[in-house]
Design brief:
about 50% helix; globular; 5 strands; two-stranded antiparallel ribbon
């Protein structure tokens, strides 16, 4: 039997192209699972639950899909579908976003908590009789479920703030919230940042008929020295932080204006990352076509 010539990307179906790309995406997920001691059985159980959950949201005809339909489109056994859907009805709602992260974001982004030159201002620890902005006010804006004193203690433990005892003021010591001691926040950001990036990319490859796509761009190069990569990392951090801080200020201002509007029902997430590693046979194989592509790629 004659040997078959491998198909070119142009000859492959969308399903085949997706399956090939999925292997690439799943490699770091597999690495994370191994690092955390998550076996295949647990991974498959989680995948089943997510497939059923996503398929359950398909209400194209105005009503939830039946267990049989979910089985047909996901391959999950009907008995498992039924058990998962019944369990999901008893699952508590998702926890609220990080209070500390939102406090830092408001402090950096809202003009009422800034100095005239746009820097985060030192704030009184407690609410002021004259209504002047305070640390307690930021916390109350973010959440009414937690005491400002508790947030103050947590932020102080993470060295995000400095407390000036003489003036009873609180000073922000960071330009962004990067979880360190709180592993729940660390994993929360890991999941949600990756989720939204994948959602944007998935929309872009499934959009049809000239539908608008999300902005998604990447710059990538090979054959670089350690010194060059370190320089690029520093450049990316400086440029990235400037973009994030400007966007945070804009979003905070718009939120203050929009929050009482009837159609203020949208959320967004804008993220950046920088990754580097020594080239391996696997990475060279996955990226073998990069040299033939634009150095800045993606969708917008």
């Amino acid at each position: 039997m004659p040997e078959q010539t491998p198909k070119t990307p142009q000859q492959m179906s969308s399903k085949s192209l997706f399956e090939k790309a999925l292997r690439t995406v799943l490699r770091p997920i597999a690495k994370a699972m191994i690092a955390h001691g998550v076996p295949l059985s647990t991974g498959l159980s989680i995948l089943k639950e997510v497939l059923v959950d996503v398929a359950s949201q398909d209400t194209a005809d105005g009503k939830p899909p039946s267990d049989s339909r979910i089985t047909a489109i996901t391959g999950v056994h009907r008995k498992d579908v039924k058990a998962i859907r019944e369990r999901d009805e008893q699952t508590p709602p998702e926890a609220k976003p990080s209070v500390i992260g939102n406090v830092v974001g408001r402090w950096l982004g809202s003009s009422q908590y800034q100095t005239p030159d746009g820097l985060p201002a030192p704030l009184p620890r407690t609410r002021q009789p004259d209504g002047a902005p305070s640390f307690a006010d930021i916390v109350r804006e973010v959440s009414t479920d937690i005491r400002p004193a508790s947030v103050l203690e947590a932020m102080s433990a993470q060295r995000l703030i400095e407390i000036r005892e003489a003036s009873d003021e609180v000073v922000l010591r960071t330009q962004a919230y990067i979880p360190t001691g709180d592993r729940s926040d660390l994993y929360d950001f890991w999941g949600k940042n990756l989720r939204d990036h994948v959602l944007a990319a998935t929309h872009n490859v499934t959009a049809e008929g000239g539908a608008p796509v999300f902005f998604e761009r990447a710059v990538f190069y090979h054959q670089l020295t350690d010194k060059s990569v370190a320089q690029l990392d520093a450049d990316a951090r400086a440029a990235g932080m400037a973009v994030l801080q400007n966007l945070n200020k804009s979003a905070s201002t718009l939120q203050e204006h929009d929050r009482s509007a009837a159609d203020a029902k949208h959320r967004f997430r804008f993220g950046m990352f920088f990754y580097t590693e020594p080239e391996t046979d696997v990475s060279k194989s996955e990226d073998e076509n990069d040299t033939a592509k634009d150095r800045a790629s993606g969708n917008d």
